[in-house]
Specification:
Blueprint (H helix, E strand, L loop, with lengths): L6 H23 L8 E2 L11 E3 L7 H16 L5 E5 L8 H11 L4 E4 L17 H14 L1 H14 L4 E2 L19 E3 L3 E3 L9 E6 L5 E3 L5 E2 L2 E6 L7 E4 L3 E4 L13 E6 L7 E4 L2
Parallel strand pairs: 1-2, 2-3, 3-4
Antiparallel strand pairs: 5-6, 6-7, 7-12, 8-11, 9-10, 9-12, 13-14, 14-15
Helix pairs in contact: 3-4
């Protein structure tokens, strides 16, 4: 048979056409609204029409770990709005696994907890303490960071630079970033996230790239470039601010447009140097 017609060869082409037509139809129906299309596959160029995600991952620490660098690889290739099924699409994640996944999944462009309909329910409120509150804390941090994350999302449409990128894209002169940060990622120019991906771990070795001074997000402690062993109890994503970082912060919300904030707090590093609050007139 003619192999050019095989599904294996045509499915990604089909998806690009499918998402483009869906996008255009939604725009025609509601010209004043931005279409939202989500696709699991497609050739490069599909990002013009749709967001993407990593597909049928499983509820395991292996897939938690693999998804970190899978996501940065896909976003670096051009599909800038990308994410994963937090907790794994297949299977029932144990509370610690789901909590750890929420810690860094909330820093991705696409953030959702999603699974097969015949697996167990896994909304955060279904879990006992401390897991429920720790997952809530990660979600609340995402809403607080929304002014920063939204800015990065907009910039990605203008420049093609994704919200999450490998550290080597920002520090190519430090050759250690070529292979020591596979399971870390930058959130914009100023934040470095180092997810915990091992069961039971309460510390994380992190390589902080040379060429910048770094500060612990939670303690404001200045850290030397190179290897650092940082505390990472359950519920804490190791997160580092680059010197000179200017991060706009909003309030905690239940959903993204719950209300219009009257103020934005702006945090800078080194901490305490020029922090200020902007108020709406």
């Amino acid at each position: 048979s003619d192999s050019r017609k095989w599904h294996l060869n045509l499915k990604n082409t089909y998806v690009v056409h499918e998402t483009s037509l869906t996008y255009e139809a939604m725009l025609e129906k509601s010209p004043d609204e931005r279409p939202f299309v989500l696709a699991r596959a497609g050739w490069p160029g599909v990002q013009r029409y749709a967001l993407g995600w990593s597909g049928d991952n499983t509820a395991s620490y292996d897939h938690l770990r693999h998804n970190i660098r899978l996501g940065t690889s896909v976003m670096m290739s051009g599909q800038v709005n990308f994410g994963h099924d937090i907790g794994g699409f297949i299977g029932d994640p144990e509370p610690e696994l789901l909590t750890r996944w929420y810690e860094w999944g909330t820093m991705n462009p696409l953030c959702r907890n999603h699974s097969k309909k015949w697996d167990g329910m896994r909304e955060p409120w279904r879990y006992a303490e401390p897991y429920k509150s720790l997952m809530r804390k990660a979600i609340e941090r995402r809403y607080q960071l929304m002014p920063y994350l939204y800015t990065l999302a907009y910039q990605s449409t203008e420049s093609g630079i994704a919200m999450n990128t490998p550290t080597v894209m920002h520090f190519p002169a430090d050759t250690e970033t070529h292979n020591q940060n596979d399971y870390d990622f930058m959130v914009g120019d100023y934040l470095l996230a180092a997810p915990v991906y091992q069961k039971g771990a309460t510390n994380r070795w992190v390589y902080l790239p040379k060429g910048a001074a770094w500060y612990n997000w939670y303690t404001d402690q200045k850290l030397a470039s190179g290897w650092n062993n940082v505390s990472a109890p359950l519920g804490t994503l190791p997160l580092f601010a680059r010197e000179g970082a200017i991060i706009p912060m909003g309030p905690k919300m239940k959903y993204v447009d719950e209300f219009k904030p009257s103020r934005i707090d702006v945090e800078v590093w080194p901490a305490g140097s020029t922090e200020f609050t902007m108020y709406e007139d």
